[in-house]
Specification:
By secondary structure, the protein is α/β, with parallel strands linked by helices. The protein has two domains: about 160 residues, Formyl transferase, N-terminal domain (Rossmann fold, 3-Layer(aba) Sandwich); about 60 residues, Roll (Methionyl-tRNA Fmet Formyltransferase, Chain A, domain 2). Helix content is about 25%, strand content about 30%. The chain is built from six helices and eleven strands. The strands form three sheets. A six-stranded mixed β-sheet has the order 2-1-3-4-6-7, covered by helices on one side. Strands 9-10-11 form a three-stranded antiparallel β-sheet. Helix 1 packs across helix 5.
Amino acid sequence: MPDQQFVVATIRPWNVDQFHAARPGLPGVWHLISDPDELTMARLASIQPRYVFFPHWSHKVPAEMFDRYECVAFHETDLPYGRGGSPIQNLIERGHADTVVSALRMVETFDAGPVYAKRPLSLVGLAEEIYLRAAAIVFEMIKEIVVTQPTPVPQTGDSVVFRRRTPEQSAVPRDLRTLGALFDHIRMLDAEGYPSAFLEHGNFRIEFIRPALRTGRLEASVNITLATKPGQQS
């Protein structure tokens, strides 16, 4: 009996690295797709995958794809709470210290499909550290799904939908009142995929990364560039 085929589609480097680290311990034949242009029906037809896994894909998957193949997404909230975009950032902004990673089957409505499994995830640390932690959990879940092939269970309860953050929301809010709130704002944006937390002062844009909360103060690295105004070229 030939080995089953599996696909992992991801665009983030921490998931690509985790794929290569986890691959030797995974059963079957595995294919990595990290370029959205390479995820096509023709490519999947040539593979005939048992599952297509989407850790942190961030691109719309056509309905014909998840209708034809069993496509599994991963979302860092306790679904149906927190459907929608920017889950880590929305959770931190709301004061959550931990969450879960939900593995769910893709359906037409975003983040509404039945759930295969949930695993706890700490929200301590910078966004990139959280993503690295989540990636390790995701590939543990992928192995479990491949081995056990569970039947996903429909979501229950009232849904809460998060909005995807816009670049303008990386600006440090004027209404922050504590160093802890400022620390959370900077750390939740400290990863690839979002503009860093920033302030604009005169002609300058001041970006903050790698924050550390100390007793009575906050330390961070700072990048300063010329701010681009409407009608100007950067």
